Amino acid sequence: MRDPSRRLSTAEAAIETLLAHGIDTLYALPGVHNDPLFDAAHAAQPRLRVLHARHEQTAAYMALGAALATGRPQPYCVVPGPGVLNSSAALLTAYGMGAPVVALAGQIPSFAIDRGHGHLHELSDQLGLLRHITKRAERIEAPHEAGPKLAEAIRASVSGRPGPVALECAIDVWGRRGPAATPGPLPREVPPLDPEAVERAADILAKAERPLILAGGGALDAAPALARVAELLGAPVATFRRGRGAVPTTHPLAVSFTEGHRFWAEADVVLAVGTRAYIQQSVWGLDHRLKLIRIDIDPAEPDRFRHASCAIVADARPALEALAEAIEARGREGTGWGAALDANRAWFAEKLEAMQPQLGFMRAIRAALPEDGIYVEDVTQIGFISRLAWPVAQPRLYLSPGHQDNLGWAYGAALGAQAAMPGRKVVAVCGDGGFMYQAQELATAMHHKLPVVAVVFDDGAFGNVRRIQEERFGSRLIASDLTNPDFVAFALSFGAGGYRAETPEALEAALREAFARDEPAIVQVPVGAMPSPWGLIALPRVRGREEPKRPALP
User: Are 357 and 386 in contact (CB under 8 A)?
Assistant: First the structure.
């Protein structure tokens, strides 16, 4: 901790505390409420870089993408009121996905907060709003509070289930000077591992005849231990969205979400690691024959639908490491499902091949993107198939918006991932509808030299909305057709690369050229209607006939 007798401004103490935590990038959009903070950031150059976007939503999405790609806390800064509200979708998404985003929000003069005077950017109970979409939200009220409160907020973002945190500071407080400490990282808080719970889980799993593993975003930092447990059990590992890459998709036991549905119907024991398992429990169904073991760092999670047969409340990595040792000690042979794995894989491959042209375009992107490249999917037809079939070699190479599934998130998140991982190739896969949420941020990519390639599948519509209207509402189309720019000309107008590709082969060639040029680019892919993927995603109940009962409150 730096000398607490030093006199610093609140803003200087905040910047120095970020630096003391090894944080070297602030995603931001400046404004008068935060002027002293940006002045302090200027003085901290080159130790700290400020990457400014053209809209507050993108500043926050960049922090989110960086957090997902690295697993480390990533800060952004915006003005109060409209700035906070513009960034709130990214905070909500970070909250849903367990991403350690740190929001630094401006505030109106301290004497006027929540008094309704009509100050510039005034928002009633801004702190209360932030507390609805973050793990923690606090107000910095003096220079000596900045360092400790920021250090505590950063610790909170990675303790327990990770998630976003927020700190607000009034316009007159940022510049106020006084004695201030600038603490470094505080120890991450994790629940202690319960060895008895591990032994109970090992007893159940060692006797399982048809074990299944579900892995979510909470398993991403436990990949080797997860694979070892799966191999000891002979258990398929099903992933979807956030969990992709928890085991390499080339692993013999890795299966898709769709295959997992078939295994769920016959499993006798399910080990759910770092996942809510919401769809499986609420839609696929539960019954008395299924034993459910939960590994989750959030103590509220294991009993959210029904009491787990065994719950290990712990960080996934040490829990799985201990579980692997306990299973091995019991002599589990790992026979598992045998030939059913190959049969289900062949069945799924046949079903997947019908998803054309999506599958062909996805394979073209995979062929062009290096194995360690980062793939960011938006809510679009290619993205839906990618959640089932995109090959992922390791964790944090596949970024998905999780259960918020918010249209238009991908391009900003991809810019943040690129900023945080400058040696990687990054591609954002968008529809024309979603890309236009942040299309202006091509200016940000050019200004900061972030060579993200956006592949824009252009069907002139909010395609999923239009399909639903066609299939369920007698083709009574409303508010789903779009008017678009020429995306190639749009890219060229910024000085970026612009390409048009109408076939998978042309898409692969365009991507290879764009990656080789190492510059921001758009590849426009004109497409028509595509076959619905929902038969492979919106799957029916296969266990139990009734809704699971919620556990009684204590």
Answer: no
Indicate the pLDDT class of residue 546, thresholds 50, 70 and 90.
low
Query: Which helix (H) or strand (E) element contains residue 296?
Result: strand 291-296
Report whether 384 contacts 435 (CB < 8 A).
no
CATH of the domain at 99: 3.40.50.970
Residue 231 DSSP one-character state: H
Is the pLDDT confidence value at 333 over 90?
no
Residues 388 and 506 in one domain: yes
Residues 6+ apart with CB under 8 A from 313: 191, 194, 197, 296, 297, 298, 299, 302
| pLDDT above 90: percentage of residues in the chain | 95
List the domain range (segments joined by +) for residue 269: 195-345
Whether the bond into 357 is cis, omega within 30 of 0:
yes
User: What is d(CA 174, CA 40) in angstroms, rounded to the nearest whole number?
Assistant: 10
| Residue with the two structure tokens 């070297």 | 24
Among residues 25, 315, 53, 6, the alpha carbon closest in space to that of 182 is found at 6
| 544 within domain boundaries | no
Q: Is 327 helix (H, G, I), strand (E, B) or coil?
A: helix
Total domains in the chain come to 3
Task: State the Cα–Cα distance between residues 450 and 256, nearest whole angstrom.
Answer: 32
How many Å from the N-terminal Cα to the C-terminal Cα in the chain? Answer: 42
| pTM exceeds 0.90 for this model | yes
What is the pLDDT averaged over residues 355-370?
97
What's the CA gap between 102 and 99, in Å, rounded? Answer: 9
Q: Considering the domain boundaries, does residue 542 fall inside one?
A: no
Averaged confidence pLDDT in the chain = 95
- pLDDT score recorded for residue 305: 84
Question: Which residue type sits at 293?
Answer: I
pLDDT above 70 for 554: no
Cis peptide before 46 (omega within 30 of 0): yes
What is the rounded distance in angstroms from the CA atom of residue 460 to the CA atom of residue 170? 44
As a whole number of angstroms, the distance between CA 255 and CA 259 comes to: 6
Q: What is the pLDDT of residues 493-543, one digit of tens each?
A: 999 999 999 999 999 999 999 999 999 999 999 999 999 999 999 999 999
Instruction: Compute the distance between CA of residue 127 and CA of residue 166 in angstroms, rounded to an integer.
Output: 9
Please give the helix or strand (H or E) that residue 85 lies within, else none: helix 82-97
User: What single-letter amino acid sits at 459?
Assistant: D
pLDDT of residue 475: 95
